User: Fold this.
Amino acid sequence: MACWTARQIWKTMPKERRAEAALALWESEHVSREDRLAALAPWLTARGFRASYLEQLPRPRRAALLAEGGLPEETAMQVLSAFHLACQRPLLSRFLDLLEIPHDNGLFKDGEGLDPDKLTPEKLKAAVDAVKAEFPPDDVDLYLRTLTAQDPESWKGLAELAGDPA
Assistant:
């Protein structure tokens, strides 16, 4: 089963959710201005915008511009990551708790405390079922897809549970 890419995830999201995710990028305390602009550079270049122009706009307008269309892979991943860290911490934390993966409020470092061999299909399915019972299933699916896009090797067991890319 194929894993999702951040671009595919972005395309499947409703425009309102994309705007919410884009706004999270602008308001994220986890993303520096330099990193934000670096992530947006391919998008800015493709649209013929300068960073200074975009920064002069109100944050909701910036978010709306990002939400209007497709994003390059790197930009889409940065936006999805910012969204989950800003808006989905309880979901992230609960999922990682169920998998017994050490984290700090839903945030873990790549590879730290994550042993893909311990993430058995049964354990993953039980965790997914549990969070889908506690959180909106669309939010859970978005998170699962984002995990597989971020690190396909570590989260290969989630690929089937995240569904096939469209």
Notes: The first helix runs from residue 6 to 12. The two ends are 12 Å apart (CA to CA).
